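Data availability (excerpt). All sequences and predicted token strings are deposited with the supplementary files. A representative entry, Crh-like protein, is shown inline so that the format can be inspected without opening the archive.
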Amino acid sequence: MVQLFNTLILTAAVLGTVAYAQITAECGVGLGNCPSDKPCCSQYGVCGVGAYCLGGCDPKHSATIDSCAPAPMCKNIDSTFSNLDRIADKTKYLGDPSKADWVADGEPTIYDNQLLLTMAPDTVGTVLASTNYVWYGKISATLKTSRGKGVVSAFILLSDMKDEIDYEWIGVDLDTTQTNFYWQGVPNYTNGGNISLSEDTYNNFHTYEVDWTPDTVTWSVDGQVGRVLKKSDTYNSTTKQYNYPQTPSRVQLSLWPGGLASNAPGTIAWAGGEIDWDSQDIKDNGYYYVTFKEVKIECYDPPSDAKKSGSGSVSYIYDDAAGYESNVVMTDKGTVMKSFLGTGKNMTAALPASKTSSGASPSATDVETIPGLTGAGTGANGLRGEEETTTTGSASTSSETAASGSSDFVQQAQGSGADRVRIGGVVALMAAVFVGAVAL
Ligand SMILES: *[C@@H]1O[C@H](CO)[C@@H](O)[C@H](O)[C@H]1NC(C)=O
Ligand SMILES: *[C@@H]1O[C@H](CO)[C@@H](O)[C@H](O)[C@H]1NC(C)=O
Ligand SMILES: *[C@@H]1O[C@H](CO)[C@@H](O)[C@H](O)[C@H]1NC(C)=O
Ligand SMILES: *[C@@H]1O[C@H](CO)[C@@H](O)[C@H](O)[C@H]1NC(C)=O
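Structure token line:
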């Protein structure tokens, strides 16, 4: 099995061929919870252990409320990008935010003291997620967007309960910044709002800020308020709850192919059409890219009535899957796993000695340990118009990706929401690097 696995990875990496992964959502709204042997429901709706239980792990749809690892607490950060030192690849990160400010999925690179998130032909782009969670704060990013049909640049906040606050840019409209918010991933197509800019977003750096308090979200561009959302305007009189983003969230920076041919028609239309992998930008650079100059996170105090256990200075957990602000508990629980076999219930789970010494990777064990990335965007941002909710659940795992390097290999769809996503050789190559890395 290990032999086969490695061979397939090599095939995909060496040939650099476009791989097709059969993507299957296993957990999430309408799909239920993960089983106890792979208890963690990843951001993309697939069950596993290890990195599945870290950032993005959905406590509501994991086996139990404590399956996910505790979430590292907010920390003030001012990221400038002269190197990749504070950016860890997802195949290396075990939950220690002192080692990295960002976790990368895809291909980030540094150019002229700026961070480029790249999207080469037939890849699903790049996502960076903050290692620390923000539970209210002021978050800003100074960036130049990408451009082109179907090319989507994004700067969002996304919680494990799928609360979301967004800035998004469609590559065919460089004069508009789209803003949006979601509560617990419930699609609501009336929540969007646009901010018009006088100077385009591709050629000019602008500073986009989200000021998120327990009562309001304010979107500001270059210091000018563009939109305000009040919590009081989101009250649902049926449930007597506020449908307002209110749970600890990671900051996510991304470039993704909304115009991927395999995405739902509404998403492709929203993104400005099918992506052109033969565009002048691709010919000139080899990839699409979005440029970040600086990202700042300033943490606000948690709500005055926030629950605490112990000193409450290390991590956030939930005490109930209802997932409201009042269900968040600030704790002293550690966030670091010993290996990629860890889960929230057993952070010290270790690789069996036989596996480590024989050089097998954790992903060559029976259970998935590193969630993949899809072309459907992060959070709910792949959902547009009249679409079904299945795109949120789309996901691949690194071993599916690797295995699918052989066109003969087709992962069986399990349950609903099966989707086909093209995944490039770059991702397969990352999987190969991963196998080498953990073999140490
Ligand atoms: C969407 O949100 C608005 C308020 O932001 C609300 O008036 C509307 O009823 C919501 N629609 C659904 C389907 O929840
Ligand atoms: C925002 O602008 C886009 C065009 O870039 C348009 O399709 C969309 O309907 C606008 N959204 C709102 C809420 O006005
Ligand atoms: C309130 O919540 C109920 C139950 O989830 C939902 O059906 C309804 O659309 C919501 N109403 C608004 C105004 O959001
Ligand atoms: C955690 O996993 C290790 C195996 O790596 C096992 O020996 C230990 O008993 C587990 N602890 C709990 C509490 O399940």
